[in-house]
Design goal:
Layout (H helix, E strand, L loop, with lengths): L1 E6 L9 E5 L8 E10 L2 H8 L9 E2 L4 E8 L11 E4 L10 E5 L3 E3 L6 H21 L7 E4 L5 H13 L2 E6 L2 H9 L4 E4 L5 H8 L5 E6 L6 H6 L1 E9 L13 H5 L4 E3 L3 H4 L3 H17 L6 E6 L3 H9 L6 E5 L1
Helix pairs in contact: 2-3, 2-9
Bound molecules: NADP nicotinamide-adenine-dinucleotide phosphate (NAP).
The site of NADP nicotinamide-adenine-dinucleotide phosphate has 30 residues, from α1, α2, α3 and α10.
Length: 325
């Protein structure tokens, strides 16, 4: 038997149960990983609440973790028992001591990256990789706006943007979070709970506004985000921390300056083994160079996943959070 977190109905954190299960043996093309650390992500909350549908209930939860390969299925030649690995995609169920998934979704860890760092960085770091290097291929010299800059994805983005020579203006909800984002390399910060964001962006950029806005807050920030773009700028809406953006009138993109908009996901970018490996290599190089340092600001025992999710949903976390089986 092995422990995992599962939920039999959608709802608040109280639906999460810590249970004993018989771990699945890996099928053809699959591996089983004994997790040393599991990454906590906002998307886990979307599945738990029912905003994103799950295949069936009861369901496991979580897609990010790192550990050691514990068993391999038939026809897996790329990985062996004992390999140190990490993953950020695949079936829900990473909140567990043992997780079985396709070997195609797993990468071997370089020696210099420990499992806690990998679990804290894989999903969030691969997301920053595609957002800064692919969704808009930043060259250096651009000015971008990044909402929730002191969060898990945001803390990595501040450092990566700085390394690229990009001026990142980060929004945050407190002076403590502003200090953290600036320490991580944000060029400027705005408290979006107190200040007029578009007005502050206008001042900071001498009226030039932003090339790209990265918005994972969603409902509450959508329209303000559009107001922070220069003409023909790109709006990247990549999350729903405050609720999903709905009922958009496309004409607003014309009114606010012939804007572009995209709604990307990690699954849409790391969609082949080749692309996944290239993105992971880029992330690992950033981690090994020290240009990106992952801040594991919260650690919870796996059994306390509900408390960890409650803290994340209530804006009480900064940086990355991991669960330890
Ligand atoms: N599309 C993709 O590929 C992809 C991949 C990974 C993550 N994401 C998205 O990126 C975002 C960040 O993920 P994360 O796991 O790193 O979380 P996080 O940024 O650590 O936490 C979310 C942050 O959002 C801010 N926020 C603003 N309004 C909020 C509200 N009403 N409720 C809760 N938080 C609110 C809070 O920061 P302040 O207190 O400073 O406002 C909070 O700390 C999420 O929206 C997630 O879904 C998308």
């Amino acid at each position: 038997m092995a422990k995992r977190i599962q939920f039999a109905r959608t709802g608040g954190p109280e639906v999460l149960e810590y249970v004993d299960v018989t771990p699945a043996a890996p099928g053809p093309g699959e591996v089983r990983v004994r997790n040393e650390a599991v990454g906590l992500n906002f998307i886990d909350i979307y599945f738990r609440t029912g905003l994103y549908p799950v295949a069936s209930l009861p369901s496991g939860l979580g897609t990010e973790g790192a550990g050691v390969v514990d068993a391999v299925g038939e026809s897996v030649s790329s990985l062996a028992v004992g390999d140190r690995v990490a993953y950020a995609q695949g079936p829900l169920g990473a909140y567990a001591e043992l997780h079985t998934l396709s070997a195609e979704k797993v990468v071997r860890l370089p020696e210099g990256i420990d499992c806690e760092t990998a679990a804290a960085a894989m999903l969030k770091g691969l997301t920053v990789q595609y957002l800064l290097r692919q969704t808009y291929a930043l060259q250096g010299g651009e000015t971008i706006l990044w909402h929730a800059a002191a969060g898990g994805v945001g803390s990595i983005a501040c450092q990566w943007a700085k390394a690229l020579g990009v001026k990142l203006i980060g929004t945050v909800s407190s002076p403590e979070k502003a200090a953290l984002a600036e320490k991580n390399g944000a060029w400027a910060t705005i408290d979006y709970t107190q200040e007029d964001v578009a007005e502050r962006v206008r001042e900071l950029t001498n009226g030039a506004m932003c090339d790209v806005v990265y918005d994972s807050v969603g409902k509450d920030t959508w329209e303000t985000s559009l107001d922070c773009l220069k003409k023909r700028g790109l709006m990247v809406s990549f999350g729903n921390a405050s609720g999903p953006v709905e009922g958009v009138n496309l004409g607003i993109l014309n009114q606010k300056g012939s804007l572009y908009v995209t709604r990307p996901s990690l699954a849409g970018y790391a969609d082949t083994r080749e692309r996944f490996e290239a993105m992971a290599d880029d992330l690992f190089a950033m981690l090994e160079s020290g240009k990106v340092q992952v801040d594991i600001a919260q650690r919870y025992p796996l059994k306390d996943a509900a408390a960890a999710q409650e803290a994340l949903a209530n804006r009480r976390t900064t940086g990355s959070t991991i669960l330890i089986p």
